[in-house]
Fold this sequence. Notes:
This protein is globular. The protein has an eight-stranded mixed β-sheet, sandwiched between helices. It has two domains: about 1-30 and about 165-200, no CATH class; about 50-160 and about 210-278, Rossmann fold (3-Layer(aba) Sandwich). It has helices at about 5-15, 20-30, 45, 85-90, 115-125, 140-150, 165-175, 180-195, 225-235, 255-275, and strands at about 50-55, 60-65, 70, 95-100, 130-135, 155-160, 215-220, 240-245. By secondary structure, the protein is an alpha/beta fold.
Amino acid sequence: MNNLSWVRGFNATVGKLAPRVVASKMRREFMTPRELPPRDWELPLLGRAERITLRFGLSALRWGSGPTVLLLHGWEGRPTQFAALIEALVNAGYGVIALDAPAHGRSPGHEANVVLFARALLEAASELPPLQAVIGHSMGGASALLATQLGLRTKALVSISAPSRILGMLWRFARFMALPELARAHFVRLVEQYAGMPAAHLDVARYQLDLPGLVVHAEDDPIVPVSEAEIIHTAWFDSRLLRLAQGGHQRVLADPRLTEGVLELLAGVRQASAGAVA
């Protein structure tokens, strides 16, 4: 029996007898990211990056100069997973800042959640020049959407492989880990307590999204269903939906159509800004 099977069996059995204990253990598991090293193809870009430290010790990598684009990776992700997109942005004349999310990379903390991710974006934006765009992958995309509701100012936003609501993620995780019904309910309440926000509020259907954007998702994503992108797009009037037949959850970041879509969005933003000035 492998370790996951053992954990699921333990949760299913003990979770009925001691639901709060099992829920607490799974809450820590859910909020504690593993540190995964960069792949070989990420190293050249990493070697050309400038490491900077922002407010409260938040760490980030910087490339290029010009109008600022802020990037945030997903859960257990890294800035250099955006390598293809970063190269294209720098070549197009943008300055790129990519954060190490809380409890990831060199940023402080041992646990994280979507609210902490969103607050990291707010903290970074307060120290950077006006943002042309914020681009987030997976939880980074969900947190970017949330951050706009908490006061983040940016001219455009790109959501890649992101969930539309956090409660769905919590229930999927709880079911995957075989938590019995009562333990599941305790698990959700604990996550809400630590995040400091009701999970039901972390839902794009409740958001006011009044900026231009791009929603990107691969149809074969095994982690976040492509239907989540449809929900985000429906809730976001001024967004374009880019559905890719392939790309999974991670490979989508290297798809040339993603890069083209981002550059097209940014060109539209710059054109609109120039027209407003004229």
